[in-house]
Write a structure and sequence with these properties.
The chain has helices spanning 4-11, 15-27, 34-43, 49-57, 66-80, 86-98; strands spanning 31-33, 60-62, 101-104, 116-119. The protein is mainly alpha-helical. The strands form 2 sheets. Strands 1-2 form a two-stranded parallel sheet. It has a two-stranded parallel sheet with strand order 3-4.
Length: 122
């Protein structure tokens, strides 16, 4: 599962983001949490919303379900408050529920949990 910063970099033409996503696609389906999809759309300029939406449609977008919402609330309550955003707790909870590796540019912004994180740099 890929977080929003990498997708935003891809939309901005950052070659490293393209390489990371290409490698992830070679490993299997690339998933995006619905929260990350919303963050990417929010970052898109009005003129770029259509191509941004098309890009997001090319990934498997994972909805936030009740179980995930409750787990994210636990993450935030158990130590995320003031240290991480609630949206990042939701993304982490989705990764845990799916047993997916979370691709991110910054590990410190995610709470602890039973999910795997792969910090990428480019």
């Amino acid at each position: 599962m890929v977080e929003s910063d990498i997708l935003i970099d891809l939309l901005n033409g950052v070659e490293g983001a393209r390489n990371v996503l290409r490698a992830a696609a070679n490993e299997g389906v690339v998933l995006v949490c619905a929260i990350s999809a919303a963050e990417v759309m929010a970052a898109a300029a009005r003129a770029r919303r259509e191509p941004t939406g098309e890009l997001l449609e090319s990934f498997g977008i994972v909805p936030v379900e009740k179980e995930v919402a409750l787990l994210a609330g636990e993450y935030w309550s158990d130590g995320g408050r003031g240290n991480v955003e609630l949206g990042d707790c939701i993304v982490a909870a989705v990764a845990e529920k799916l047993g997916s590796v979370l691709l991110t540019k910054g590990h410190r912004r995610y709470p602890g949990g039973e999910y795997k994180v792969r910090v990428v740099s480019y």
